[in-house]
Amino acid sequence: MSLIQKLKARAVEGRPVRVAVIGAGKFGSMYLSQAPRTPGIHLVAVADLSPDRARASLARVGWESPRFAATSLAQAAKDGSTFITDDAPSMIGSDFVDIVIDATGSPAAGIAHALLCCEHRKHIIMVNVEADVLAGPLLARRAKEAGIIYSMASGDQPALIAELVDWARTIGMEVVCAGKGTKYLPIYHKSTPDTVWGHYGFSDEQVAGGDFNAQMFNSFLDGTKSALEMAAVANGCELTPPKDGLYFPPCGVDDLPHLLRPRSDGGILAQKGTVEVVSSIERDGRPVFRDLRWGVYAVFEAPSKYVMDCFQQYGLKTDSTGQYAAMYKPYHLIGLELGISVASIAVRQEATGATGEWRGDVGATAKRQLKKGEKLDGEGGFTVYGKLMQTEDSLRMNALPIGLAHNMVLKRDIAEGEVVTWNDVVFDATQQAVAFRREQEAIFRKEMSS
């Protein structure tokens, strides 16, 4: 039975899936716009640091105010309305919640919420890729021990890439490379919240009329979000990040199997089984023909001459040898697609992509020369961007993860392009996110050395 039929059955039976969302920003708002339209789903609560902002988000996406006028979770669960709160921990602990969606974008908050979900046995959909890359491998272990599902968020690119990888491997193909598209030029690594809208080409009117956060959007542009998402894909799909970080080669959909194949076969990959992000513009700024800016892809290899012939017979685009082929999805609709994850967990008890081995990490890297005494300002800010690294290199360097590069003061000067390490900053080891990440590092260092 399909997802929608199973959801309809739950609606008829009067036992809808009770969903709670934390964070009413762009991703959360996009899901909020669709949740009432899906049978068998009851969005029972929305938690946000600003309840007024959550109410404004609901109104903006078309909700009538009586629908979110509940004064308690108990009332919302009884009458089918939605409760707005700023108390996420209490919401997670409620008996009226089945699935929690963390759409905060805060690494520290994401870790706290995931651990609370483990404590209260609530499935969690981690939209918060920042938290997932910071501590997802250990969070996934804790979730498994608690008997809950810890899932990627459908609609976000890592989950969609994981779906393509799973498809290819399930039909017997070896995945050579997987990733996504984006708009990239090397200069973007230096972009700040002050320059981001010019690079995107957004007008003042567009920015003023939408729910746009300059630092968040800058994290997409400066390479940080790409690094985080490819680390998540590496960790969730048993793929290995490139040794020296993402290359961002300009590449259209027709060239995926030509470019993203091993160097020994004429491509650019140092190895099979890796991740990469392709740029929608050439290095001189010209647009790439048939770009994949909004989409995802997987390149895979034919295991035999017979399969190569099948590729040709059915019109699949391959490289010149016929050995490598690509499948891609040209768009992703982020929060509009999140209902797939909710339904998959609720009626199939399956994650839509799940963190496993710790293969990829993202280190905080200086955007410019930084001075002793400066305070780091995290993803998309003015000081650092995130660079994708292999985990063994990150642990060897003692790299400071980008997800914790918030409000830490530098103890020495850092050169432009240099990875910041734990030894370079003043940090509070008692903070939950710091302590949990350090615990993960200690556990995996021990396992990697054994």
What does this structure look like?
The protein is an alpha/beta fold. It has 3 domains: 3-155 and 338-348, Rossmann fold; 158-184 and 223-331, no CATH class; 361-449, Type Iii Antifreeze Protein Isoform Hplc 12. 38% of the residues lie in helices and 17% in strands. It contains 17 helices and 15 strands. The protein has helices at 3-13, 26-34, 51-60, 73-79, 88-93, 107-120, 129-146, 157-170, 196-200, 204-209, 214-221, 224-237, 256-259, 305-313, 339-348, 391-397, 432-449; strands spanning 17-22, 41-47, 83-85, 99-102, 123-126, 150-151, 174-182, 274-279, 296-301, 324-329, 360-366, 375-377, 384-390, 406-410, 425-426. The strands form 4 sheets. The protein has a 6-stranded parallel β-sheet with strand order 3-2-1-4-5-6, with helices on both faces. The chain has a 4-stranded mixed β-sheet with strand order 8-7-9-10. Strand 1, helix 2 (26-34) and strand 2 (41-47) form a beta-alpha-beta unit. The longest helix is centred in the first third of the chain and has 18 residues, at 129-146. The termini are far apart.
